[in-house]
Predict the structure of TetR/AcrR family transcriptional regulator.
Amino acid sequence: MARISSARPSAEPSSPEQHDRRRRILRAAARIGGEKSLERVQMHEVAKEAGVAIGTLYRYFPSKVHLFTGVMAAQVDRLREQVHAPAPGTSPEDAVADLLVQASRYLMAQPVLSASMLHASNTAHVATVPDTMHIDNTFRDILLRAVGIDDPTVQDVTLVRLVMQCWYGVLQSSLNGRASMADVESDIRLACRLLLAPRSNAPRSKKRRA
């Protein structure tokens, strides 16, 4: 089982060279993590693949939990860049469902890496792994944009958070072999319809005249 080897948070890069080293580490971890489970990935092989000293790796990522939570944060950033406006006539619920189905298909195409990312991010504590907050905030903003809400209410944020948590659970079930991709897509679409119905920009039903 992966564990956090240090209570300290990871260092944040400040110079272009440091940002480049961090990106190389994340790319190396993603490549190795695509072939080996989280338990089998060794930090020294990630450092070697990335061309950095092992001390540099541990400075940015004190544990494999930090490392693969960082990989997931990079994947979420990539998703944000690839999100396009929904086709005309698409309901907000369907727009969110379409986005999550697309993300699910992408993640299921790399099941070993996806299992490691989900395990790491679910294990990570926000106090020592800042990428957890980055994942939550970025993913929330992606879904709010898809649902067409620029100024979310507290309830909107809560509903989107519930959609995210439901999606994580459905995806984990599929990675564990408990649900087919068809089940995943069906469950995601149903969850979006049910959970996003009370959102602030939902059409209001007309009151009956007395």
